[in-house]
Amino acid sequence: MIRIKINNIFIEVPDGTMLLKAAEQLGIEIPTLCYLKDFIPSSSCMVCVVEDKYSGKFLPACSALAQTGMIIETDNDEVKKLRKNAVELLLSEHVGDCEAPCKRACPAHTNIPAINRFLAKGDFKNAAKILHKTKHGCAECAAPCEKVCRRKNIDAAVSIMQLQEFIFSQKDFKEIPSSSKSQRIAKLKFNSSYGKMRDNEKPEFLKEPENANARTEPKEIQSGFTADEAVAEAKRCLHCDCRKADICKLRLLAEKFEACQRIFELTERNDVSKIIYPENVIYEPQKCIKCGICIQITEKTEEIAFTFIGRGFKVKIGVPFTDKISKALRKTAKECVDSCPTGALAFYKS
Amino acid sequence: MIENTEHIIQQIVSQYGTSKDKAIPVLQAVQKEFNYLPDDVLKKVCDLTGISYSRIIGVSTFYSQFRFIPAGKHLIKVCVGTACHVKGAMQVYDAFSRYLKLNPEHDTDKDGLFTLKQVACLGCCTIAPAVQIDEVTYGKVGQNDIAEILNNFLSKATEKYVEQKSWIRNSKLQGEIRLGLGSCCIASGSEDVREALMDGLKATGIHTQVKQVSCVGMCHQVPLLEVKDKNDSVTFYSKVAPQDVKNILLKHFEPANFVDKLKNNLFQKLDRLYLDNQVSSPDKCYLDVSEKPVQDFMKKQVHIATELKGVLNPIDIDEYKQKGGFEALQKCLDEYSPEEIIEMIKQSGLRGRGGAGFPTGEKWEAVYNRQSNIKYIICNGDEGDPGAFMDRMLLESFPYRIIEGMTIAAYATGATKGYFYIRAEYRLAVKRIREALAECEKHGFIGDNILNSKTSLQIEIFEGAGAFVCGEETALIASMEGKRGMPHMRPPFPAQQGFNGYPTLVNNVETFANISWIIRNGANAFNKIGTSSGKGTKVFALAGKIARGGLIEVPMGITIREIVEEIGGGIQGNKKFKAVQIGGPSGGCIPASLAETPVDYQFLNEIGAMMGSGGLVVLDETDCVIDIAKYFLSFTQNQSCGKCVYCRVGTKHILNILEKISSGKANMDDLKKLAELSFQVKKGSMCGLGKSAPNPVITTLKYFMEEYEAHISGTCPAKKCKELIMYSINEKCIGCTRCAQYCPSGAIEFNPYEKHNIDIEKCIKCDICKQVCPNEAVEKI
Predict the structure, then answer these.
(1) Which of A347, B89, B630, B650 could make an SS bond with B658 (beta carbons 3.0 to 4.6 A apart)?
(2) CATH code of the domain in which A45 resides
(3) CA A199 to chain centroid
């Protein structure tokens, strides 16, 4: 047995126990990001850092083993600062919007991309559920949503206003209860955003929308969109929002630590890229924190597994020999998406 | 796929085997064959070995040795190590790039003849800037030498390969001639001198022995020839040129017979008549060893790891034995138990020479104490620090001593399988070790039942594939297992769970080189040398702006001033001594004001530097510390494995801020941020690479704050940072047009006999005009 002290409390643990486990036994919570139970800890994010006052070293609690004589402090100021900076460093290379510009511009904070996804599937009921919150409707609004719509950079903004009018005009709209799920989640203040869309990023953004055509105009201007037209127009949405905006561990930690994305700024941000995998999975490498959990998952069962490619700052996660993408993620899509701590791997038609 | 290709791959795979841990040697062999790693070839390798596609890509993209686009026929490697950097390696690189008309996307010229590459450190720091084309090394390369070098190389490449003559020892011969043939000696022309010697001996009929010897360490004097005549009196000749050789021979040796004598006299006179300027008098090269500079260079040194330097023939096992070699091993096997040896090493106070300085005896004990049928021993020769070449020199010069040290360690720890992990760039070191291992095997010093004892040790060589982080022991082991060289948290230490999960002892080359001396002379003799926190000696690669560079071995506790001024003879060319960079990218810059600091683990740590592996680069007043800090950070940033965020992203930000500072665009807030981030990266990184990466910044901020502030206000005091200087021609211009002829960007108009001017818009600040001006008329403002 090994005797150590954590936050001034002595504890005895068996040889080979990780500090994270030892702290857990004392009911001390250490924040984690890249750590996932049952996986080999990658110790890449350094969010679980603690200080060993005995050796004066700062250690990742997920992989550092308890050693006789350790005097661990899990939340002193230096540790807190290291955690916050670690998240800020990760954010400095993170390119992506937590929430879509339209949602952020909307006075009612309506989740417009989510509505569009339902509309695109012809699921007007669920679309209406989300919109229901917006009691007064959109009629009076100056439509800041359309002004900031990223599709504007490619051809024309999505007709968000007309789409909302279409939903309002559905005859059973009033009877639909508002979505309870979106109300439960407290609004997060932290928002990652990456600024202007670059020309070379346009093809990347056009990978998701099923409709690459110009803006749909209703045949009957007076009566607005028909159902088919609404579906077609909703399919123009670029889905700028992060599909895991409410559960992304990076965002939740950024919120918790009050991190600032701009404290460390790279001279040039990376280009947005979107890779579509089978089983409805979208991979956005610029949101990846390189923890390698997906590598560990796919290595076990997939014909073609993820791997680290390159080294150092330029390292990325991908599949070998590009022509094999279709063979990856066949069995493990759900596990990978659920385990990915950020929005890098997500189901894009959710 | 062409059938032949498939056949080649099959052969390679059957040679190395199909196990996963052979991934790196297989990839190296494949690349050697195809000159890069084509996708279909990689896939074939996977099919034959069972290594997965993902793994092969993961591994091959990790190491910088591997290429994925075809390379030119010849590879030009411009060394951008520290010593080369301070002597203008980047300018040389740019000059090659301009000459071959390359751009950032294309590293190969359009004819596919040359590929240009920057390499971490060729370990030829004393002849900086160094460039290696395939196997040929060129030293002291200037920006204007490009065409000449390429032509010289091409003419060499077309020559028929001449089988190296074996040099046979013959006790009947009178006298001997010793010639150092380390990589840097060869780069300075020793090989040509050797050829001239052989030709000279043939022509004169003189019977004497030419012996290649271990590195003498006086790299500033090479090619160095030591002539021991028949009366055993020794004369040194330095900086010898091939045309000097014949006269040196005739001065000390009698030609074989009367006819030869006459013939020679006649030819010599004829030579004098017709080729007056080509024949030189031997006195020109005469180096008086009693002369003060040589005395100074040698005086303060103590040779343990480099014992018998300049005397031993590196691969002559009989000579090594005659001079006391393998006595220590014999003694250990006959007289001492493993516990006694470990105790002796502990007593000696020897600490790891790779950088961190962990007590060697304790490390051995940890491996010894593990119960396991299989134990490994690894000699870490993955010397990657820019500005360091100690390990290469030791491997090239004293292969038997290192093998002996390793064998003793194997006996003491119970290891039965050993590996030399050597950087692939160190071709000569790999070759010598390979030869030495074969000899040892033949003589029973390694293999089964060493010297008829129960101890057995098999040793193999593993060639590293280009990743600085693999100097870290857990990363080194990962790469030997055929994985990406990423470190992991310790514990478990290699002594507990190392190579393939078995207890493993990893020691640095220099550490092993000390062992036999300690056994032969006793722990106390070693313990007496040095300071309280550092026992014994340390080998340093002394380079940079120093008068006498070279490989030196000094007792711990010697001061920086003694090294720089006494051994190194002070700064070149009457410049002012500014600082020493010690410990490479993990170390720091120590200002001249702290020159009295004794060199040992503790004192160096106290002032924020680090012993490191032994690079010691001297800087003068024309070196900018921000440039140096930026240089090291771009190195570590490039070498980061990418595992933990502080090293992967943090070092990138540190480098960004430094770039901002050196371009004059930073403000005081940036300085504050730089300092804060540096400390955070030091604390928050996982392994030694990240933890020590900010040291060059932290020490320069500490000792050269005023220089940082000067950059913020827009001036570079050393006139080094390109964005903050301009070139201009002053009144001293004599209108010779040299600058205009050499200017690669057409910024200087051809204007004979009149004062020239530089068009600032066109100037690329390559410094050529300043270098070629005969009258110091070009200045930086």
Answers:
(1) B630
(2) 3.10.20.740
(3) 23
